[in-house]
Design goal:
The chain is mostly beta strands. The chain is about 0% helix and about 50% strand. The strands form 2 sheets. Strands 2, 4, 5, 6, 9, 10 and 11 form a 7-stranded mixed β-sheet that branches. It has a 4-stranded antiparallel β-sheet with strand order 1-3-8-7, with no helix packed on it.
Length: about 110
């Protein structure tokens, strides 16, 4: 059974950084692409970043391009989202997603505020 558990969210000031982690179990991470989504209060869930199976290519939403970096450590079975230069509009619940299995994590709250 595939399970995803996110961690690393919290409160940060504008311009600050956070690194989100997604611990994956029940799958061999090296064989699958992975995604991060986010959902702000009152808004639809949106795709933030995707990393390819081989970890060599990634896609980013225009709103985070140049500030966020997605990566995965196959040995640690963990997917990361490094978020720099955070803005108040980045405030949302962030979710890890395994598209091949249709499995979501429980989400982690990120709040950017002074």
């Amino acid at each position: 059974q595939v399970q995803l558990v996110e961690s690393g969210g919290g409160l940060v000031q504008p311009g600050g950084s956070l690194r989100l982690s997604c611990a994956a179990s029940g799958l061999t991470l090296r064989y699958y692409a992975m995604r991060w989504y986010r959902q702000a209060s009152g808004k639809e869930r949106e795709l933030v970043a995707t990393i390819a199976m081989d970890g060599r290519s990634a896609f980013y939403a225009d709103s985070v391009k140049g500030r966020f970096t997605i990566s995965k450590d196959n040995g640690q079975r963990t997917v990361y989202l490094q978020m720099n230069n955070l803005k108040p509009e980045d405030t949302a619940v962030y979710y890890c997603y395994a598209p091949t299995f249709g499995v979501w994590g429980q989400g982690t709250q990120v709040t950017v505020s002074s």
